[in-house]
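Bug report (template v2)

What were you trying to do?
Predict the complex of my protein with adenosine-5'-triphosphate.

What happened?
Run completed; filing so the output is reviewed.

Input:
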Amino acid sequence: MRWSESCIPTLKEDPREAEIPSHKLMLRAGLIKKLTAGVYTFLPLGFKVLKKIENIIREEMDSAGCQEVLMPVMHPIEIYEESGRIKSFGPELFKLHDSRNRLFALGPTHEEVITRIAREDMQSYRDLPQSIYQILIKFRDEIRPRYGVIRAREFIMKDAYSFHADDKSLDGTYRKMESAYRNIIERCGLEYRIVEAESGYIGGNESHEFMVLAENGEDEILSCGCGYSVNLEKASAALSADVKGEGTLEAMEEVSTPGASTVAEVSDFLEVKSSGIVKTLLYRAGDRDIAVLIPGDREINDIKLSALFEGEDIRFLEPDEIEDATGGPQGFSGPVGLNDQIEIIADRLLEGFGSMIVGANRADTHIINAVAGRDFEVDRYEYLAMAREGDQCPNCDSRLSVNKGIEVGHIFKLGTKYSSAMDATFLDSDGKGKHFIMGCYGFGVSRMIAAAIEQNYDRAGIIWPREITPLNVIILPVNSKDRELMDAAEKLESELLEMGMEILIDDRDLSPGVKFKDSELIGIPLRITVGNKLREGKVEILYRESMEVIEVPLEEASAVVKKYYSD
Ligand code: ATP
Ligand code: MG
């Protein structure tokens, strides 16, 4: 491949629209080109990386016994009415009309399409289990497309679906997929964690996310040296038993806290730790009022709270509603003497907490030494506080630490969610019709490129892991008008091509400085510079990752390349 004949439009400056390194570098290295918000072309170098990742995925899926298919992108809207997902997708579903005014959706994922196929074509338990996958473009009208291909509106996904007669069979396939996903990410040379995850709107009962670790990841992961990892949203705040509230178990007492309503103000005023103060948050869930108690130094996990009131609308009470419900102003609410109609839900961290400092439901007043069970009743204890760094690992004695990550894959046990909704059944060995038990397994192919870059770059540009580099070697003749240099470059190229390497010759008529910079930006693992040293029969090889340079005789260059790629 000759650079002068290739579409590799590198940029010197960071584009203003890009916030994180992978997005900046993908644009600067000419891997992608934006058409409109969240919609990108993969230019030749970007496309090569995409294909390499696809091939790794394909090999791993095939060896996990999964069959490749290609499903349509255009879906009649009725299938989403059948599954009930037209509502849960909401505005994320792209819609279009045909010339007869029939409504279609552009596929955001394919559970509906594949469940239809199973309903019609998998009749008996003898046809099961089956696993099917595809690599296809998906459409989602993301509210905030950002970070380039990380959150795009049109992106490439590998999606797989499995159909089973029983849970045991599903579990077997689920474990195979888990190990295939591990292999894919490891082969791409990336560090990652597998975390227990919420299954979001796809639904189901067991799900794991595969997170490539990256400082700029949108997801937060809590993990422990023992191997336990969990998505922060799913984690339960837990502490070792020695944590207690502030104060004593003497009789409770009202204290004046003039003007101190926030946790920070009360903790300053009373000279106590904020963890000893208990926040009382008042909500309306459906048509009832509830009070949630959590330690003053914690935030509430909204996802867990909503999950407690599944299907009901839940919101904070307005200041005047707080006055009506508690008799006191906002900022001074507490559980003592609350109206019986208000359910009191306390975070599990408060079980065995001893005495608490709480609001007195009166302006400028708090109560110290309030004890649950003695001074007020807790209706139930639930996990509601956000977990954080330093919390106790649920599986061992260690403390959890926080990492950020980019979700590249997600596997779900769907159970009969879609087969029931769409009434897809098979005839079981006992002669009865049963709903298929299903699993689904998504992998963000295009997102993976950005994730790989987030883990592998420096100030000069991208540093490709060797398995997914767009090309193996860039040959850089310092002067492309010099016939001797070009002849040597081409000779080297043909040797390397014979070894099955993919080569780019930078034959552009530009200064060596510009060419060096560009080569470092696009991040190909090895650069061979053909320059003045050729008079002594030598070329220079740069290892992009370490930036180490060695000089070798021209004839030995291809052996160095071979060694690098076979190590
Ligand atoms: P997210 O929480 O990031 O929105 P999701 O839960 O919606 O992801 P899934 O529906 O599980 O994602 O899709 C499977 C995989 O597809 C994800 O793990 C991710 O790698 C990729 N993916 C999802 N949405 C996008 C997007 N907008 N752009 C690029 N890749 C995406
Ligand atoms: Mg999403």
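What did the reviewer find?
The domain at 11-72+108-235+402-454 is CATH 3.30.930.10 (BirA Bifunctional Protein; domain 2). The two ends are 25 Å apart (CA to CA).
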